[in-house]
Amino acid sequence: MFTLRQLPYSKDSMGDFLSPTAFDFHHGKHHQAYVNNLNNLIKGTEFESSCLFGILTKSSGGVFNNAAQIYNHDFYWDCLSPQATQMSAELKSALEHDYGSLDAFKEAFLKSATTLFGSGWNWAVYDPKTQKIEIVQTSNAQTPVTDHKIPILTVDVWEHAYYIDHKNARPVYLEKFYPHINWAFVSQCYEWAKKEGLGSVDYYINQIVHKKA
Asked: What gap in Å lies between CA 212 and CA 116, rounded to an integer?
């Protein structure tokens, strides 16, 4: 049985970016529902005793949708920080190399997140084939992990992520999101991705977030 992960900060720590009410609904209801749904869907199936990474990479349909949404949300919470954080010199150098400047990366990332049609996620990923950081969009529950790309940053652009605090103003939500990026976590993910590839995703999911007792 999977359980809802705890937030790595208090619900009242994000100022005018996200309110405690937004966390109550987004984390306490939406994220919880994906956990409940997955637990119900895998009962009596081949996935009943599988780890979350195994389900994410081997399932389809409703099982995949709920497993992916659990991982996507787990990762999103860790990408947020109440306080400003610093990125590593390694990540800074990579972003400047791949995008020309940190400002250019920010512009490209926010533009991609703003223009994603409908519900989904916007990501920065490390592609082992090109050894570059790419910005990718995924719709609904899809995740770059199934394309063998390693997430290092994500922002949730499902409307439930921002409607309580920002109504339909996705660009306002995204501008307030950017100063709250946990660059220390993103830097760590980049380091892991370069060293371990998809193994770093497996490690993050099953040893850090959903570690078995």
From this structure: 35
How many other CB atoms are found less than 10 A from the CB of residue 147?
11
- Tell me the CB-side half-sphere exposure of residue 202, using CA atoms within 13 A: 11
Helices (H) and strands (E) in the chain, counts: 10, 3
Token pair 């209801």: residue: 29
Q: Is 124 exposed, middle or buried (0-12, 13-18, 19+ CB in 10 A)?
A: buried
Report the alpha-carbon distance of residue 196 to residue 190 in Å, rounded.
Answer: 10
- Predicted local confidence at residue 212, as pLDDT: 55
Which residues does 86 contact at the CB level (< 8 Å), separation at least 6? Answer: 183, 184
* pTM summary value: 0.97
* CA 102 and chain centroid, separation: 20
Apex CA 150: angle with CA 133 and CA 26, to 5°?
A: 105
> Which residues, listed in sequence order, are joined to residue 135 by a DSSP beta bridge?
124
pLDDT digits (tens, 9 = 90+) for 70-117: 999 999 999 999 999 999 999 999 999 999 999 999 999 999 999 999
**Sign of the CA dihedral with 17 first, then 19, 20, and 25 last:** negative
Does residue 53 contact residue 195 with C-beta atoms inside 8 Å?
no
Rounded-to-integer distance, Cα 137 and Cα 19, Å: 26
Q: Is 101 exposed, middle or buried (0-12, 13-18, 19+ CB in 10 A)?
A: exposed
Helices 183-196, 89-99: crossing angle, 10 deg rounding: 80
What does residue 147 show for φ and ψ, rounded to 5 degrees?
Answer: -100, 15
